[in-house]
Amino acid sequence: MRPQRGMTGERMGGALALAFILGFVALALVPLLRFGSAGGLDAQIVGVLKFTLLQASLSTLLSVVFGAVVALSVARRPQLVGRVWLLRFMAAPMGLPALAAAFGVLAVWGREGVFNSVLSFFGVATKFNVYGMTGILVAHTFFNIPLAARLFTAALDRFPPTYWKLAANLGLGRVSLFRLVEGPALMAALPGVAGLIFMLCATSFTLVLTLGGGPAATTLEVAIYQALKFDFEPGRAVFLVLVQVVLTGLVLLFLAAFPTPAEERAQQGAGIRRFDGGSLVSKVWDGAVILVFLIFCGAPFVAILVDGLRADFPHLLADPLFWRALSTSAALGLSAGLLALILSWLIAVARISTASRVFAGGLDAGGSLILLTPPIVLSTGWFLWLKGGGGFAPYVLVAVINALMALPFSLRVLQPAVLSHFERTRRLSQSLGLTGFQRLRIIDAPALSRPLLMAFFFALALSLGDLGAVALFGGEGFVTLPWLIYARLGSYRTTDAAALTLILAAVCMAFAVLGTPSDRRQGEAGR
Amino acid sequence: MRKTVLLAAVAALLSSTSAFSADKVLNVYTYESFTAEWGPGPKVKAAFEKTCGCTVNYVSVEDGVALLNRLKLEGKDTKADIVLGLDTGLVADAKATGLFAPSGVDASAVKVPGDFKDDVFLPYDYGHFAVVYDTEKLKTPPKSLDELVNGNPDEKIVIEDPRTSTPGLGLLLWMKSVYGDKAGDAWKKLSRRVLTVTPGWSEAYGLFTKGEAPMVLSYTTSPAYHEIEEKTTRYQAASFSEGHYIQVEVAGMTATSKDPALAKSFLSFMVSPAFQDIIPTTNWMLPAAKMDQPLPEAFNKLVQPAKTFLMSPDEVEKNRKAWVAEWVAAMGAK
Amino acid sequence: MMQAIEVSGVGLTLGDHRFGFDLVVPAGAFVAVTGPSGAGKSTLFNILAGFEAPDEGRVLIGGQDMASVPPGKRPVSLVFQDNNLFAHLDIFTNVALGVSPSLRLDTVGRAAVSSALSRVGLSGFEKRMPGTLSGGERQRAAFARALVRKRPIMLLDEPFAALDPELRHQMGDLLGALHRDEGFTVLMITHDRDEARRLADRFILVEAGHVAAQGAIADLPVPQGG
């Protein structure tokens, strides 16, 4: 990437964002060091580390491979009926709390799940046992295949429409097209997508424990939680967080070593036409891929729907606590989404404005590794600073934490789009003398409205389903939807919890719809 | 996933609500299910405020462990007058903070199995851990811990993780009480029947009611909830011949309380019938002292353990890490 | 003289737009395709290249009916205003795709690529990535690819629109030379009437989805008004 002159403001913005993130994390960690010792790496932790790496690597591999297969099929069908709904659906699993997702996955794959019913219907005597590594992989791929597919589809859709015409005109076959056109696009997106998914899986907690079948399935995140909660050794928790950061940082470095091919990128969405999907084989393949994807990732949602509809909705909706939870969740989600958007914008813009490798690396790391600092650690640290501070403090804190957790997602969405956009408009803006907010308003915001929206609603959905940060503050005055779900579950009220989960899923889907507007320009595609 | 059950060390951190209505304020730190709309909290508040001329102000965190952590984090600056919701396993640790003062309340009214006595902490309810089973799926439930350990591996049980939950730790101590040095071997055998180990009670009980396993580690009182609220006797607790491990929930007053007299009067109220009447059908635990009303019928049908296990807090504190390590090794080896 | 392209009675509806084309292009001609924006010039090219299937009518190229011929098998090469090169492939590979879409090149093929590159003045650019080239150089590389493909028809969709006037002139000269030497039939969409008159020998005027006029370049109507 060539550095761009006259963009000190952009670099300053990025530096500010980075300082904010690092400062927020560092300030949280410092007071924790006062309590307890760090301890070392004992055999048990080493075992946990090995398992963390193994399950996260396998989960990432499967998610990325199948996500790419789905993305290739979806990208090949720009005129597919309901395509925009398919894309919206891909953003939906992210908003589910882990426990809700685990129940959904088990309704399909569990001992009493649909899959086992089908098996016994066909006379298979042995039951399929999902618990163990299988269960972890199924749950992680349920979450992450859609995420990978969404980001990969966006990468493929960003190609200039002429590419597909040229490919057709040159007579590129299936294999050549993949090797020379699609493959490089996937490769370009791979380090970001795989890194994100790896981090999500490495820090997985509820899914790993619940579906893992026993303590052999334990991630470092569990050890951090144990250190902070049961053993009350915050110093050790900080140490384990650092181990997690270093370890995952190495994986990210490894991924970053993949060559990133240069890209020529167009505005996404509008006017893509593909000429390579005409054959019957290709149609059947793509149809089958999309169908299997929908069944795999949709079935748990159907289970949530069926489960949720059994509840007494009028009673539930008459509960003022529910409305307070809903509005708190929405307000938190909106603020977290907005903050995540601002931070990722500042980072993305600074990232392409800087010539310094160190600064660029810092921006990348700051935007990613934040995911490895468990919210429980951040909020505990901040609690010590804000001793007894009431009022809006917990709301602000949760919003900031949620925003930081969502940052890696919104950055993955925004960064490639910002990169191609600035490449394209650099000369124009310079010749017009447009800078700062003017440029943002006149040139950037309209052209980037789609990725901006998508980044915003990704962060919003993520924040909606997040219990990690919220649980710390849950209580009398602070009630969110995931908190309410857990509270009902924690006191035998499973039916209520199922209904609330359904509502949460519906809200996430509604936001996913807003985040992926349908393409009004498609009608002009052929001209 | 990020949205985990990272149910917090420090729940409800900053949710101290201010109160203006009365001149005297009693700050009660407790756990969330106590203050939930269906929990005992609202009724307890109303009943106590009728007599004390004060305002009860709850600050609720996730659970007993989080409660103690919050107190440790706040130290001498804590606003708490009363800390309600620790269990016997946490008592030694709580005392070591030096933040609590002897209650001075006459504990003669308190009667809990295992005869827990303490000059600082006062029990307000209790329950025994038990294996709850689904009568529609399991015709012959285990009659002892030994039958559970050695039973048919195809009949599964969901248990909680002792590293992250109180019931999980309860089962660990229960096994230790029964098997002593042979607990590791017993865990190894039991692991064949363990469908999965969840981070907390909610996940385990959710899996159980969704039919994933016919057994779950819960409380002897669980069937009472289903009978009273859901009018079903489908879920029952299995009575184990060796006896059951007990969980006693306690409360204490802080040494830093600005109104020790008020705090003390709350603790006295806590072991009086006015408080105890509320407990069974809101906290789904058994009363630790006399009630005015008769115990609801469903509670009389509950499993009455022949023997109660309760380890001394010091012993638990001393061995917990080693025992958890033993558990991890035995369960992980399957 | 044989007709390179014959389009007769072709009709096509896209959304609200209705197109109808009838035209002939003699072999070896250099045709300037002009007309207002949105009139259907690109749609005409899409039909010729096989990206749009007409609802009715016939398209003959080199005397052969194109109805069942997929884009990759049609005797046409395409050059667009920009994005003609795959940005992640080097110049050699981009041009080599014109020899073999699966990049299986023998020594003859490799020599053809090199000579085409030197023909357009890009000797020594083989290992360069498109992003490091100027706009004009990228278009030269696109012409080099068209050269090695040896398809008799070249469809150029405003190939010089992104270039400054000086460069435009040079590229026009290069194109003219290639046309003379290789004997392609060239169709070029352009808005620049001077350029059209300088390079082309025939014109096709497209207006409102139809061919409004065609013939020798000398007869290209002068636009009314502005």
What does this structure look like?
The complex is a heterotrimer of chains A (527), B (334) and C (226). With 527 residues, chain A is mainly alpha-helical. Chain A folds into two domains: 1-35 and 311-527, MetI-like fold, CATH 1.10.3720; 37-308, MetI-like fold, CATH 1.10.3720. Chain A has 22 helices and no strands. The radius of gyration of chain A is 23 Å and the shape is globular. Residues 1-5 and 520-527 of chain A have low confidence and may be disordered. Chain B has 334 residues and is of the alpha/beta class. Helix content of chain B is 37%, strand content 21%. With 226 residues, chain C is of the alpha/beta class. In chain C, 45% of the residues are buried. Chains in contact: A-B, A-C. At the A-B interface, helix 4, helix 6, helix 9, helix 10 and helix 16 of A face helix 1, strand 2, helix 3, strand 7 and helix 8 of B.
Comma- or semicolon-separated keywords:
B: 334 residues, alpha/beta, 12 strands, 37% helix, disordered N terminus, C: 226 residues, Rossmann fold, 2 domains, six-stranded mixed sheet, four-stranded antiparallel sheet, 10 strands, 30% helix, globular
Detail the topology: elements first, then pairings.
The complex is a heterotrimer of chains A (527), B (334) and C (226).
Chain A: H1 8-32, H2 43-75, H3 83-90, H4 98-109, H5 114-121, H6 133-157, H7 161-170, H8 174-202, H9 206-212, H10 220-228, H11 234-256, H12 280-308, H13 313-317, H14 320-353, H15 357-368, H16 375-385, H17 393-432, H18 436-447, H19 449-464, H20 468-473, H21 481-489, H22 494-515
Helix pairs in contact in A: 1-14, 1-15, 1-16, 2-6, 2-8, 2-12, 4-6, 4-9, 4-12, 6-8, 6-9, 8-11, 10-11, 12-22, 14-15, 14-17, 14-19, 14-21, 16-17, 17-18, 17-19, 19-22, 21-22
Chain B: E1 24-31, H1 32-35, H2 41-52, E2 54-61, H3 64-74, E3 82-87, H4 91-96, E4 100-101, E5 122-134, H5 145-150, E6 157-160, H6 166-179, H7 183-190, E7 194-198, H8 201-209, E8 215-219, H9 222-230, E9 235-238, E10 244-254, H10 260-270, H11 273-276, H12 279-283, E11 286-287, H13 297-300, E12 308-309, H14 313-332
Parallel strand pairs in B: 1-2, 1-3, 6-7, 6-8, 10-12
Antiparallel strand pairs in B: 3-10, 4-10, 5-8, 5-9, 5-10, 5-11
Helix pairs in contact in B: 6-14, 7-14
Chain C: E1 3-14, E2 17-26, E3 30-34, H1 41-49, E4 56-61, E5 64-65, E6 76-79, H2 91-96, H3 107-119, H4 135-149, E7 153-157, H5 165-182, E8 185-189, H6 193-199, E9 202-207, E10 210-216
Parallel strand pairs in C: 3-8, 3-9, 6-7, 7-8
Antiparallel strand pairs in C: 1-2, 1-4, 4-5, 9-10
Helix pairs in contact in C: 3-4, 4-5
